[in-house]
Amino acid sequence: MLERIRVVLVGTSHPGNIGGAARAMKNMGLSRLVLVAPEDFPSSDAVARASGATDILDAAQVVETLEDALVGCTLVVGTSARDRRIPWPMLDPRECGVASCEQAAAGGEVALVFGREYAGLTNEELQRCQYHVHIPSDPDFSSLNLAAAVQVLSYEVRMAWLAAQQLPTKVAKLETTAMLNTQLATADELESFYGHLERALVAIGFLDPEKPRHLMSRLRRLYGRSDLSKLEMNILRGILTETEKAARGEHHKRGETDV
Amino acid sequence: MLERIRVVLVGTSHPGNIGGAARAMKNMGLSRLVLVAPEDFPSSDAVARASGATDILDAAQVVETLEDALVGCTLVVGTSARDRRIPWPMLDPRECGVASCEQAAAGGEVALVFGREYAGLTNEELQRCQYHVHIPSDPDFSSLNLAAAVQVLSYEVRMAWLAAQQLPTKVAKLETTAMLNTQLATADELESFYGHLERALVAIGFLDPEKPRHLMSRLRRLYGRSDLSKLEMNILRGILTETEKAARGEHHKRGETDV
């Protein structure tokens, strides 16, 4: 089950941190590492800090964009500093561990996304995440080492995983979730949907591409927390397709012919 | 209160780990570091890995024996691998965080004791601890990096400290939820929305009033579980209004006039 929880490191500068993250993951039973545009990888520094977790480094997937890293994911959680301009559904690390295990137990695919050492994730990247997680830290010295942040979240995943294994009462709930979740839309499907939604809103004149304001991020926040199933996504895509036709006047013309 | 919880590192080989431990402590609001017979300290490697937590390194107390490090302590917890010949009262990291905060809040002095990178604590050293704490890890790859272990226990101390202060760990989440919830759409507003949605879907030809099937109930289920805020509802209503205009050809005609 833990193999369905991937750690995604975006734009990592120091290969030592990649190695440290791999070691932290392996200690906690996680195995799947995805690197988005790492500055220096593979690297002997990564191997040194991995301290034996080289199998995770060897199997790490290197991709160009965050979008590529999230293909197939049904739950995407991004690490974030506390203060962000756009409020977003937040988890603390413990809730993140529980949510990740529940999703993975239900057959979903989970991504825990970590940003650059100094700059974190961009707002655009954060908006690709359904939830943000903040590791509580001293406000006067709040920036954790990247591998340390991976350690904390991986530790909470393991604590939740152990608890789920020891509490048979939870199984029924997980199975129910499984029934619902087997059909959850994936992160890449969600992205296509957002693209389609944006085009349709421009077509009907609701979204001005010159002044987009916060419209798309608000809609992302709404649909991102709704656990869209594949069926629901197909319905919404169908509505958008017909809306675009209406905006092109196709529906209107057909109406005229009918009358 | 947190100043009464000290981190004790015994016989550390690599000064980088001392720096990493100092950073992890400072991130979590701990400040008191005691080093028992470190192999190499002070060291530029420690300063580099401390990444700004040099005040903790500067104030670190260096002593010769564990006994010296534990002077004045009322609670001593030692990190331990799972299997030990002598059974001992065990805490998991979460219990360790709670016990440490309770003891410090009661005016006691707490020591969290970490052993050597490769050999851990000796049996004699472990017997100087009232409790042992084991960080749950994969039995096949169980040895955490020293700074990562300090990170996990310090994180649990902070979680317990925040809980004890009744400062929720999820301030941002509560604030976000509060912002959204004070403005939640009401049941009657939802009903108006569903009515509007249905009319718009008929207008664009996506919903056939003669054969409605399960479409509206599926959409009700989707939006019903999404906790729509008033703001989000206004956005969706705005989209529907523009969609209806497009279906009537108004947007299309306006487009033609513009051209």
Description:
The structure is a homodimer of 259-residue chains. In chain A, helix 1 (15-27) links the parallel strand 1 and strand 2. A 7-stranded parallel β-sheet of chain A has the order 3-2-1-6-4-7-5. Chain A folds into 2 domains: 2-181, SPOUT methyltransferase, trefoil knot domain (Alpha/beta knot), CATH 3.40.1280; 187-258, Helicase, Ruva Protein, domain 3. The first copy, chain A, starts with a strand and ends with a helix. Chain A has 12 helices and 7 strands. In chain A, helix 1 (15-27) packs parallel to helix 2 (44-50) and helix 1 (15-27) packs parallel to helix 7 (146-166). Chain A is α/β, with parallel strands linked by helices and 259 residues long. In chain A, 52% of the residues lie in helices and 11% in strands. Chain A has helices at residues 15-27, 44-50, 54-58, 66-69, 93-105, 123-126, 146-166, 169-181, 187-203, 215-224, 230-247, 250-258; strands at residues 5-10, 32-36, 61-63, 75-79, 90-91, 110-114, 131-133. Residues 168-181 and 252-259 of chain A have low confidence and may be disordered. At the A-B interface, helix 1, strand 5, helix 5, helix 7 and helix 10 of A face helix 1, helix 7, helix 8, helix 10 and helix 11 of B.
